[in-house]
Amino acid sequence: MPGRKSESLSNFVKGYLEYYVHVVGYVYFMPNKRPDILPVPVKIIEES
């Protein structure tokens, strides 16, 4: 039937928007610097 809302599509979009708002709030509104996901490479120098 045209004009009828798909419940599964509605639930998917609702979940996506809730996740998006959560991530955007974390990424853009947190003022403190967070650590990177990967560790910073370390260069080891040996003196001979």
Question: Secondary-structure map with pairings?
Answer:
Elements: H1 7-29
Strand content: under 5%
Instruction: Determine Rg (CA atoms, Å).
Output: 22 Å
**Can you give the mean pLDDT?**
78
Instruction: Give the structural class.
Output: mainly alpha
Helix-strand sequence = H
Number of helices: 1
Distance between the termini: 81 Å
Helical coverage, percent range: 40-55%
Query: Which geometry do the CA atoms define?
Result: elongated
Largest sheet: none
Q: Provide the number of structural domains.
A: 1
Short overview:
This protein has 48 residues and is mainly alpha-helical. It has 1 helix and no strands.
How would you describe the overall organization of this protein?
The chain has one domain (1-34). The protein has 1 helix and no strands. It has one helix at residues 7-29. By secondary structure, it is an all-alpha fold.
